[in-house]
UniProtKB/TrEMBL annotation:
Gene3D superfamilies: Metallocarboxypeptidase-like (3.30.70.340), Zn peptidases (3.40.630.10). The lineage of its organism: Eukaryota, Metazoa, Chordata, Craniata, Vertebrata. One of its GO terms (cellular component) is extracellular space. It is an enzyme of class 3 (hydrolase). The active site is at E360 (proton donor/acceptor). CDD domains: M14_CPB. One of its GO terms (molecular function) is metallocarboxypeptidase activity. This is Carboxypeptidase B. Its cofactor is Zn(2+). Its EC number is 3.4.17.2.
Amino acid sequence: NLSPFSQKVFRVIPRNEEQVEIISALASRMQVDFWQPDSVTQVKPNMKVDFQVEADKSFEVESLLAQNKMEYRVLIDNLQTAMEAQFDSKVRTTGHSYEKYNEWETIAAWTADIAAENPDLVSRSVIGETYEGRQMYLLKVGKSGTNKKAIFMDCGFHAREWISPAFCQWFVKEAVETYGKDSVLTNLLDRLDFYILPVLNIDGYVYTWTNNRMWRKTRSKNAGSLCIGTDPNRNFNAGWCTIGASDNPCDSTYCGHAPESEKETKALADFIREHLSTIKAYFTIHSYSQLLLFPYSYTYKYPSNFQELNSIAGTAAKQLASLHNTKYTYGPGAETIYPAAGGSDDWAFDQGIKYSFTFELRDTGRYGFLLPESQIKATCEETVLAVKYLANYVLEHLY
């Protein structure tokens, strides 16, 4: 077997059910890592399907697609090269940088530093520990006050989505740097608290730096299986494992043996349950696809406040596009992309948190999970605009 990194990433657009079947057949014949959608079961006609295969299988893949007259292109010709090309930041520092992808140790140290340097604005706590025993740090950002409502935001659910933790760090930087200067953010921090979890799936994130850049799940062992990990975003008690999730531990969308079976998801759920009276919005940051989603993903039924969520998502997408003209699609998860049960956004909404949103950051597939560091700044700046708009809306519509 060739080095694991000379893989290729293909984009195929199946035009009918027959072509969807060909993709399924391909996936059962060889090891296929789906980038978008998350699994072969979610593939449907006219959808962009991005997947990665071993280098020695790419010839076979191309001939099969060509034989069946399927539309396809190679998005990434050599994964190893694309991985190296990610690190194109001009910042030459060994320590933490907001314009680089930081390893977990660097992020952990940063959480301590940012709290120590901004004691009147940031405090750090531990909400649990991961399967491998790492502490899960949570930052609380806001001016101290009484009876404050809060917004919860997490990053790094899926290990390979590196732009996600980069955004949580950037958002904290914006808060501390522009407090007292930017009137909107100052007002938000005076009147609301932001709970920010920079990385949920820390073990998985560490593994993407040390072993396999394309790892997605947690790193917990599964009884009766050699396959490792659970998809944390299929592990919540919201239509758990009913649709768009797998009960096979070897699959990338494995729902776990029970809801909140993962220490990481349970820590998050416990924290939110304990603070339900104060948390009024939930934002979870993923990549890639440039989407702003709201409930539901586990059912096609609309939430009771659909009209309101749809309208504010539309405005947030406009705000985001105003900076670099980055186009986002928005809507309820199930119909905007595909049904997927057990997500944290649906769960938070069902707990009574009316404003629950999932961001899928840049890009739309040119780099996929390997977004170059040179795009971190622009991605974060535009996303901050959407988050600020949503947070401000929540502040003006407290319940």
